């Protein structure tokens, strides 16, 4: 029976997303969408509804059972809210402050908010994180709080951003601040701690026992993914100075790859076709590293399992997407394409402005959303071809969501449903 459950679980990792959007980058955690999506829209074309959202928040919308869920917060972080909207009409069904803070940690810049982590949802329950400020489990029918944890903290320095991740009964919190860096697995039903694992990365940045820049080079904003390797599922997460793989059920370290860069925000993505996971090494000299996954990997596998590296136009914040054996990336106003198997550059062309929102793709199209409101849609192929350019009044920081062939798009000011 255990093997049957594992096979079913692994198969779900590889299916294209057809319906609900239940976590960051969709149920597959990779941004790839089955079916077609809208090609053309504007403020006056193909918008089914548009709802103003108060405050600031970059969390991705969650969609299930006819409802859309997001988080938001006041600009200074004193009040943190959860909103629920009717998926068909955009009507707000819930708008409630769940967390208040007297002295929230300053953000230091406008790239982040106090409501940037994306939650997780399943029938009957939803989980939302505001990083160090709290994690909440809600009943999605009554809107009642089932449990809450506010004791899991770190110094985010520039605000929380790592999204929740869930495998079976394990709700994973990624807490990588300037002062401490760790993962915690909670029982999704009770909020009880199942395990905690501190990063054991060798940062090599201390002087007289004090980390460089007060620990600024140790923090991270990435989110774990779950990858089948042999007959197990590994939790893989890039962080400052190293990417680690863990046993999701125990938190035990399995393998790691060290590097010199820090503060990654761009998420990792896995390709079943190549058997490789593609990680972003972070700021400094950001690179994409392709790590070949095999059963039996242990310890430092940098010299044995890094298939290729690529450093040109590597995203600082936006997560890449894979379609048709190609990796598509967005950074500094440029869209680019790399062969997933070899790391060979295919093309790079100027598109919009800066990118924070993660990309999505269908079998035919790739969608890139920039910070001033432009969505550039290109052909999902080895040659550059722009299919459409669509613009909203406000910019995109939050990653998109998909439901029944429509897009749920969050700008800095509004939530939209776009459909043709």
Can you walk through the features of this model?
With 420 residues, the chain is mainly beta. Helices cover 4% and strands 42% of the residues. The strands form 9 sheets. It has a 5-stranded mixed β-sheet. A 4-stranded antiparallel β-sheet has the order 1-35-34-33, with no helix packed on it. The chain has a 4-stranded antiparallel β-sheet with strand order 2-3-4-5, with no helix packed on it. A hairpin with a 2-residue loop joins β17 (232-239) and β18 (242-247).
Helix amount: under 10%
* CATH topology (fold) name: Methylamine Dehydrogenase, Chain H
Cα Rg: 20 Å
What's the mean pLDDT score?
A: 95
Shape: globular
Entry summary:
4% of the residues lie in helices and 42% in strands.
Which features would summarize this protein structure in a list?
2 helices; 420 residues; mainly beta; 35 strands
């Amino acid at each position: 029976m255990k093997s049957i459950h594992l096979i079913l679980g692994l198969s779900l990792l590889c299916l294209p997303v057809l319906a609900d959007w239940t976590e960051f980058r969709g149920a597959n955690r990779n941004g790839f969408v089955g079916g077609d999506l809208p090609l053309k829209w504007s403020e006056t074309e193909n918008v089914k509804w548009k709802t103003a959202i108060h405050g600031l928040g970059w969390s991705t919308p969650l969609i299930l059972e006819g409802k859309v869920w997001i988080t938001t917060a006041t600009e200074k972080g004193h009040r943190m809210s959860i909103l629920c909207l009717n998926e068909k009409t955009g009507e707000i069904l819930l708008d409630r402050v769940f967390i208040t803070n007297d002295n929230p940690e300053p953000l230091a810049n406008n790239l982040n908010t106090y409501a940037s982590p994306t939650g997780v949802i399943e029938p009957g329950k939803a989980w939302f994180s505001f990083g160090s400020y709290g994690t909440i489990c809600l009943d999605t029918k009554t809107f009642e709080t089932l449990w809450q944890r506010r004791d899991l903290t770190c110094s985010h320095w520039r605000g929380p951003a790592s999204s929740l991740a869930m495998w079976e009964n394990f709700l994973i919190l990624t807490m990588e601040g300037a002062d401490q860096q760790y993962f915690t697995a909670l029982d999704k039903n009770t909020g009880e701690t199942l395990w905690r694992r501190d990063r054991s990365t060798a940062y090599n940045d201390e002087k007289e026992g004090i980390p460089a820049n007060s620990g600024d080079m140790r923090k991270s904003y990435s989110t774990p993914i779950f990858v089948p390797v042999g007959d197990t599922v590994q939790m893989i997460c890039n962080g400052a100075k190293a990417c680690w793989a863990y046993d999701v059920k125990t938190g035990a370290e399995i393998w790691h790859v060290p590097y010199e860069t820090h503060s990654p925000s761009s998420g990792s993505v896995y390709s079943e076709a190549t058997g490789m996971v593609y990680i972003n090494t972070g700021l400094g000299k950001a690179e994409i590293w392709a790590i070949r996954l095999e059963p039996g990997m242990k310890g430092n596998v940098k010299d044995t399992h890094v298939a290729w590296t690529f450093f040109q136009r590597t995203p600082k914040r936006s997560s890449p997407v894979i379609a048709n054996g190609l990796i598509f990336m967005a950074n500094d106003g440029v869209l680019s394409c790399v062969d997933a198997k070899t790391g060979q550059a295919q093309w790079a062309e100027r598109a919009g402005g800066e990118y924070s929102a993660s990309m999505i793709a269908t079998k035919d199209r790739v969608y890139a959303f920039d910070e001033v409101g432009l969505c550039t849609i290109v052909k999902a192929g080895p040659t550059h071809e722009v299919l459409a350019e669509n613009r909203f009044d406000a910019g995109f920081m939050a990653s998109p969501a998909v439901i029944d062939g429509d897009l749920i798009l969050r700008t800095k000011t509004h939530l939209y449903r776009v459909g043709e």
